[in-house]
Amino acid sequence: MKTQLKSMQALPPFTLNERITHLKNLSKVIKQRQAEIISTISEDFSHRSEHESLLAEVMVCLDEINYTLKQIKQWVRAKTWHADWKFFPSKCSITPQPKGVVGIMAPWNYPFNLVVGPLIAAIAAGNRVMIKPSEITPKTASLTQTLMAEVFSADEVYVVLGGAEVANEFSGLPLDHILFTGSTQVGKIIMRNASENLTPLTLELGGKSPVLIGDDYNIDKAAKSIVAGKWFNAGQTCLAPDYILIDAARQDELIEHLKKHINKAFPKPDDNPDYSCVVNPRHHQRLTDLLDGIDEQQIYQLGKAGDSRKMAPTLVVNPPTSHPLMQNEIFGPILPIITTENLSESIDFINARDKPLTLYLFSNRRETIKTIKEQTQSGSLSINETLVHFAQKGLPFGGIGHSGMGSYHGYQGFVSMSHMKSVYYQSKINFNDMVRAPITQFKEKFIAMINR
């Protein structure tokens, strides 16, 4: 890998025309191999909903490419303005410049999207790219390597396969930028490794993204949206609702509406093509263990899990906050419901924990929305809907604190993958010598005049 990196760093960045050509070719290959991408991901998961993969792995990437192609000529232009009046008529500018070679470390939950999304940003910014896909989805990783070789030469985009040892070595390379998507725990390791080379990072992590249901909001509408967001990909989404906060008086009503919409969306989940599997037996066991120590009367499991890799949608009512279920990101089809007395208590509950990747608020009250925006911190805030904010063109995606640092998507992705170089253009006519030694009496008067 080190030899490959050196050869890539010795080559010039992509021209604008090369970037456009690469993105168009990438789009063409994704469209041609769409069915294969979807079926390969499903093989890695044992079963992955075809429609979920189409929406989240293919369509999102194609939309991002199309949006980037429409905007890229504007993005690459230097932004120029007149300098401060004291230096008139000099000029300043910010000129986007490729960083060099960007490393992309992708997770298993969306193993194609979370390679291609960052890749689009990196190519748009003119960088060459090294990619480390997840070993947990090996067939998709291998297909990714094949597809990239159809679009790029090895010194343009290079895909390296392997497990944790390869990932550890990869993150220690003297890359010019690393974008890592994964858990907070692994993100800390990546950051330590990258620090040896002072490699800048974009960390897209996770955390426990809360849902707060205001007392004014229609329970049925909230439940329908929560079910769609939570059990998409069987809850294996960094943006998935992790737990719900609601007032005690409406808890039972919420449970009934959640059950109704779960049964409507995913009847017989063990034999339902729209309901995805847990990615592997280890994660299935991890999720099963999360229910240990909770009273059976607090658990509502909708459907049978059988012996397959599927885990039925599960509601857990008021688990202890000290229980592992409430301490770590769930990343699966289990949804705790916590009761609070009022909005203030809900805010305190959220703020007592690590800053989440997303906060979901269901309320139509302007004052409630304003309060949540001002009194909580999260990577993003989604009001009255779940998940779909990820797919909004031009809306940055990223976390804060333990849920990540930096962001990408749209222009923000271009900026993250670029060095926004400051440039100063000195005019031929200037008065700079008037403030330089030796300071005469006349110069003192001039300095006093401009300091008013």
Give a concise summary.
With 452 residues, the protein is of the alpha/beta class. 41% of the residues lie in helices and 18% in strands. It starts with a helix and ends with a helix.
Topology, element by element:
Blueprint: H1 2-9, H2 16-32, H3 34-45, H4 50-75, E1 79-82, E2 91-98, E3 101-105, H5 113-124, E4 128-132, H6 138-151, E5 157-159, H7 164-171, E6 177-181, H8 184-195, E7 201-204, E8 210-213, H9 219-230, E9 243-247, H10 251-265, H11 281-289, E10 299-301, E11 314-317, H12 324-327, E12 334-340, H13 343-351, E13 358-362, H14 366-375, E14 380-383, E15 397-398, E16 404-405, E17 407-408, H15 410-416, E18 418-425, H16 441-450
Parallel strand pairs: 3-4, 3-6, 4-5, 6-7, 8-9, 8-13, 9-12, 11-12, 13-14
Antiparallel strand pairs: 1-2, 2-18, 7-16, 10-11, 15-17
What does this structure look like?
This protein is an alpha/beta fold and 452 residues long. The protein has 2 domains: 2-205 and 401-423, Aldehyde Dehydrogenase, Chain A, domain 1, CATH 3.40.605.10; 210-393, Aldehyde Dehydrogenase, Chain A, domain 2, CATH 3.40.309.10. It is 41% helix and 18% strand. It has helices spanning 2-9, 16-32, 34-45, 50-75, 113-124, 138-151, 164-171, 184-195, 219-230, 251-265, 281-289, 324-327, 343-351, 366-375, 410-416, 441-450, and strands at residues 79-82, 91-98, 101-105, 128-132, 157-159, 177-181, 201-204, 210-213, 243-247, 299-301, 314-317, 334-340, 358-362, 380-383, 397-398, 404-405, 407-408, 418-425. Strands 10-11-12-9-8-13-14 form a 7-stranded mixed beta sheet, with helices on both faces. A 6-stranded mixed beta sheet has the order 5-4-3-6-7-16, with helices on both faces. Strands 1-2-18 form a 3-stranded antiparallel beta sheet. It starts with a helix and ends with a helix.
